Amino acid sequence: MATGVRSGVTSRPVELEIDSIAAGGDGVARDENGRVVFVPRTAPGDRVAVQVSEEKASYARAIPISWSRNGPDRCEPGCALYAGCGGCQLQHLTEAAQNQARRRVVGDALARIGRRSVAVPEPVTAGPRFGYRNRISLTVRRLADGVVAGYRALGEPDRVLDVPDCPLAEEAIRSAWRSLRKGWGTDAGALPAGTELRVTLRGSAAGRVALEVSGGVHAPDGEGEGSGSPTAVAEAIPGLESYHWTDAGGQRRRLFGTEAFQDCWGAFELQLGPGAFLQVNRHVADVMEAYLDDRIGPVEGLRMLDLYAGVGTRAMRWALAGAEAIACEVSPDAVACGRQAARLYGAPVRFLEDRVEQILAAVLPADVAVVNPPRAGLSRSVASQLAAGGVRTLAYVSCDAATLARDLQRLGDGWRLAGVQPFDAFPQTAHVETIAWLERSAARIPNGGSRAANGGSSAASGGSGERA
Predict the structure, then answer these.
(1) Helical H segments across 207-325, by residue range
(2) Which residues fall within 8 angstroms of residue 55, CB to CB, at 6 or more apart?
(3) pLDDT tens across 241-287, in order?
């Protein structure tokens, strides 16, 4: 029988049957009164004894104690730390069951929050189920009796679980993390001093590694007791290309190696600054971009907006294919990387370093806009400007189904939701990437709409397939 997380709660155990998986990865059951109960590390079909750990008027949370029956989709997790680690949520489910859960989460959010009825297909998968992450961030905490370094513990966000290895990461990152732990010395003395640090490791397609540390104190030139030793860090990690440290005030210093980190993304060689964002799953990212290209179709002569663009590789592809491409991104590191790559490849992209809220009115109208906002989704300002501003076709790339559904409501009824496609970009976790494809009839485009809406090219809405 399956085993799971135990707790110190003392309420009388009750037995429940798990019906489905919720958005955060917990199993969903109902108690004898019909109240929803969320239970982590459970699978549909499980019959499990639980202890209630939190009670609300409309729902409760519980801790699994023992299983009398396993559901048909339960499997053995691939990581020995899974039972207590908060980094993953779905390792105990088969691949098919994980994707069924993601599909249901997207569909439920669109129906319940977005008031949209749309068929949600199976998530698109690509690449390995483990070893896919090109970036991981961990917490290093110095305690009275030593150092713990890893992810937050399951159900205990204030506690750090020591994680010597993470099988979700690409092999170069796993090796770098093991080597860093082995070589950082007593009390992790090779790193900056301080009670708690944030450590991020990024890997390239060629197997090189970049290290970023945030927090703590680093004496000038690494001098002074407990101040950190960049040399020791560099010696500990074979293949380390760059090492940056950011202090509590947000000031960043390069401690070792190159200022930029070289990686290949699609057809482009990039010089990435520490703050530049890329998708963590390069395999699924390629499939998502192919989906977008296929759905958009020919772009020559179109005005295209890449909003929340990151380093702007999408806009560079458009520009090289003959589109008027504009990329907006707030991160200086990402914009610098994008501009450098655009010059290298001769892609005439117009990069705007600013918040989308500040520049959107100035770049509308457009034939096609692709938005890829952070988990919080679109602000009301951006949604209202898109609703009023003469965009014919809108592709929304989302990492949170709930905010996607909310934003579809904010965008108003002037759009037709022509398709939704989930992508399994984060295997073993409850997260899902989704592309929503929205089209606007010419009759609903405000005066001054895009060239396609006013009789120009209509290729932007003539592609096939689904988006991610």
Answers:
(1) 230-236, 282-296, 313-320
(2) none
(3) 999 999 989 999 999 999 999 999 989 999 998 888 899 999 999 99
